[in-house]
Amino acid sequence: MANKTIQGTNRKISLNTRNTVVGLSFILPNFIGFALFTLGPVVFSFILSFMKWDGFTEMTFAGLKNFQKIFGDKKFLESLGHTFYFAFFTVLFSMTAALALALLLNRKVKFVNFFRSSIFFPYVASVVAISCVWKAMFMENGGVINSALQMIGFAEDMLPGWIASTKWAMPAVIIVSVWRNMGYFMIIYLAALQDIPTSLYEAAEIDGASKWQQFVRITFPMLTPSHFFVFMMLTINSFKTFDMIFLMTEGGPGTATQLLSMYIYNKAFISWDYGVTSAASMILFLIVATITVLQFRVEKKFNDFM
Amino acid sequence: MIEKKQSAFTRTAIYVLLIVLTTITLLPLVWMFSASLKLDSEVFTVPIKWLPETFHWENYPKVWEKIDFATFSFNSIKLTVIITIIQVITCSFAAYGFSKCNFRGRDTLFLCYVGTIAIPWQTYMLPQYSLMRTLGGVDTHWGYIALQAFSAFGVFLLRQFYQGIPNELLEAARIDGLSEYGIYARIVLPLAKPALTTLTIFTFVTIWNDFMGPMIYINTESLKTIPLGIRMFLGQYSTSYELIMAASVMSLLPVFALYIPCQRFFVQGVATSGLKG
Q: CATH for A65-305?
């Protein structure tokens, strides 16, 4: 009897080991690359933010000096402000546009697929190509947008300078960003809309609820998980945005569209200041992590409440 | 949603609205195409001319003469194909381990994967760069391939899908004596075709369009990709917007050609990433 148990345990251990070996063998090919080129650098970046290093000579411990440096840097604070400005409006308008488009396209109309895929296409189009087009369209003189504004009656001296003006460059890149994002998040909303049980609408219909009431009382609250998800994804995406702005304005004019991501890029590949780069990176990471955690917290609370 | 019979007026209004919105969305792309067929002097005329006087198709061959577009295209195709293949293979493998094999530490490991999806690349691109410099991979194709080939997102996407495959099916195969590798190859892979297609398309488009990666890692002209080529145009011939637009149109063509027949998979990929919400 005792013998049998021991044998059983042995077999169990060996089965466990075998399972682990087999499981790891599936994961390993991907994990080696992932650990080396993603996980390792992430950890290294964290360490570097407390170090002084130029990439070649010996590393020295710097404590919080790098953080003191960036918070004393006017350019850093400015880029932080720009990032929040950019993110706030990009998230607000993209969410609104995505939801509106999803509601509009969640019905049986002819060519619905054509409409949906046309609106989604900007998201898969090459960022270099679309940045070049929008740059050309935003030209102050002769650009499509100002020509159109002129046609509908704007006086010439009232036309915005778009990417050539410090005041209008940010709205210009926000417009492009919303244009790019809305199709993607429209699809997420569409998928969620299709999951709302039709019986809810039927009941509302019987109770005599208007279309607007149905939207406010049924559709909008039923989409709550999607609102959270879309909000989080959009916020993270906005904080990551780099190439489109780099290609359209290079952070200019002056520093008008310099975002945190671009500040990090400049510190990294132009000044080669490892410590400051990593400290600024940590701030970016902390912002994104805070948003993610908050999002989950709020969503959880909300679900418990429901 | 069940639609009651709408009045002819509402229906027409919806169509008009949809057509207007779609037109506005597509306008930049239409303008791109139209500008690519114009003369230099026609690009920025007021009022806008949507149709060029004559179609200057010769702008397209001109792009190939002015910059080494053939080399850039070759590099783009090469990198995209290699990275897509490695990524689909390693991700589908890893996703099986994460969803169908049971062992200790699996979920912790997976948490590491998911955690990094949300981390912006900018936060670790400098340490990554210095690592790559140490390994001698900066300004080489293999270095860029190594960076892009192991995506956490791909593992996440496929794992989502694999979890929908019933375990009873796998259990039955195990009883019949099939090894885990056999189950992966003979049962899971055939069932996962739609998800694999989605990942293939997503990777293809991401790498084909990638600008920041090649910009940071590749300096030698003969190694550059199409997005970098267009960017060179923007610097060197910033007045000839018709050529920049022609190059842009060409860079969009493969994605467009893929998009038309495979929309379903694009949509599915987006919807899956949103499922967890």
A: 1.10.3720.10
